[in-house]
Write a structure and sequence with these properties.
The chain is an all-beta fold. It has no helices and nine strands. It is elongated, with a radius of gyration of 13 Å.
């Protein structure tokens, strides 16, 4: 049985609390052919996060490059490298 991830990310940029410390948020949605994948491990710049029942996790991080890896037992891993900029929305499918 061949199972694969369909990983889509929508990136939302938010300004930080100071002019020097701008942050962005990355919204990662993990889906398979059957629907959302709950409990998938989403590693963003080395920090581990877990998707909710709807297959989504939102992570706040500094502007710059985001290295994203998604893993879950029984699925092929998926990865992406995205340049995050404050004030920008960028979909990644």
């Amino acid at each position: 049985m061949h199972v694969r991830y369909v990983m889509s990310c929508v990136l939302f940029a938010l300004s930080g609390s100071t002019l020097l410390a701008q942050t962005t948020s990355v919204r990662v949605e993990v889906r398979a052919e059957a629907g959302p994948v709950a409990g998938a491990e989403v590693i963003v710049n080395g920090a581990s996060h877990t998707t909710e029942a709807n297959g989504v996790v939102v992570v706040t991080l500094p502007a710059g490059t985001a290295e994203i890896v998604v893993v879950k037992t029984g699925f092929a891993p998926a990865s992406a490298s995205v340049q995050m900029q404050a004030g920008q929305q960028q979909p990644l499918v």
